[in-house]
C-alpha cells in the first residue's frame, strides 16, 4: 500500500512539473539545418517531404535562411501547425554543428538567459536583435556545450 501511495505521489509531482513547464510559454520554434548550398538542400526537403517555403528572413549573396514547413503550397505551409525547418548557409570552412540546431521561442528572453545560467548553462555573448523579422535572440549553451538559440518576438 505504501508503494502505491509513493507511486501516486510521484505521478502527481511529475504531472505538476510537466504542467508548470508547459505553462512557461516556451515552444520549439524550429530546427535549423546548416547547408553549404541552402537552395539545393531546401529543394531536397521540398521534394522529399512535401514541404514548401514559408519565408526568407536572410537572403543575401553570402547568407541565406530558407524557412520551410509542411504543405504542398506556400499558403498551406504558412498555415501548418507543425514546427518549421530553417535551412541556413554554412560556410565551407565551418564544421557541422557550428550553429545551434535547436531554436526555442521564449516569452521573456532575459529571464530565459538567467534560467540557462542558473541551471548550469552559459550565455557567451549578449543578446542581439534582428529588426527585419522583429525578434531579439541569444545563443546559449546547455551544460554539455550544445548550442541553443533563444528567440523572443517583439511586439
Overall 3D shape: globular
Percent of sequence in beta strands: 25-35%
Instruction: Please list the strands of the largest sheet in the order they lie side by side.
Output: 2-3-4-1-5-8-7-6
N-to-C series of helices and strands = HEHEEHEEHEEE
Largest sheet: 8 strands, mixed
Unreliable stretches (pLDDT < 50, length at least 5) are 1-23
State the CATH architecture: Roll
Number of helices: 4
CATH superfamily: 2,3-Dihydroxybiphenyl 1,2-Dioxygenase, domain 1
Question: Averaged pLDDT, please?
Answer: 83
The number of distinct structural domains comes to: 1
N- to C-terminal distance: 53 Å
- The helix fraction, in percent, is 25-40%
Radius of gyration from the alpha-carbon trace, in angstroms: 19 Å
- Class by helix and strand content? alpha+beta
In the CATH scheme, the class would be Alpha Beta
CATH fold label = 2,3-Dihydroxybiphenyl 1,2-Dioxygenase, domain 1
How many DSSP-defined strands? 8
Topology summary:
Blueprint: H1 2-23, E1 27-35, H2 38-49, E2 51-59, E3 64-70, H3 74-79, E4 85-89, E5 102-105, H4 109-118, E6 128-130, E7 135-141, E8 147-153
Parallel strand pairs: 1-4, 5-8
Antiparallel strand pairs: 1-5, 2-3, 3-4, 6-7, 7-8
Model description:
- There is one protein chain.
- The chain has four helices and eight strands, in the order H-E-H-E-E-H-E-E-H-E-E-E.
- It is α+β, with helices and mostly antiparallel strands.
- The chain has one domain: 2,3-Dihydroxybiphenyl 1,2-Dioxygenase, domain 1 (Roll), CATH 3.10.180.
- An eight-stranded mixed β-sheet has the order 2-3-4-1-5-8-7-6.
- A hairpin with a 5-residue loop joins strand 7 (135-141) and strand 8 (147-153).
- The longest helix is centred in the first third of the chain and has 22 residues, at 2-23.
Amino acid at each position: 500500500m505504501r508503494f502505491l501511495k509513493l507511486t501516486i505521489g510521484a505521478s502527481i509531482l511529475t504531472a505538476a512539473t510537466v504542467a508548470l513547464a508547459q505553462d512557461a510559454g516556451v515552444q520549439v520554434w524550429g530546427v535549423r539545418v546548416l547547408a553549404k548550398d541552402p537552395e539545393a538542400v531546401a529543394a531536397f526537403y521540398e521534394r522529399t517531404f512535401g514541404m514548401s517555403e514559408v519565408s526568407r528572413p536572410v537572403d543575401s549573396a553570402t547568407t541565406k535562411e530558407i524557412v520551410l514547413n509542411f504543405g504542398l503550397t506556400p499558403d498551406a505551409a504558412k498555415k501548418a501547425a507543425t514546427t518549421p525547418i530553417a535551412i541556413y548557409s554554412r560556410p565551407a570552412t565551418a564544421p557541422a554543428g557550428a550553429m545551434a540546431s535547436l531554436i526555442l521561442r521564449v516569452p521573456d528572453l532575459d529571464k530565459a538567459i538567467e534560467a540557462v545560467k542558473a541551471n548550469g548553462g552559459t550565455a557567451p555573448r549578449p543578446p542581439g536583435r534582428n529588426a527585419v523579422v522583429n525578434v531579439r535572440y541569444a545563443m546559449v549553451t546547455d551544460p554539455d556545450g550544445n548550442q541553443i538559440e533563444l528567440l523572443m518576438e517583439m511586439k
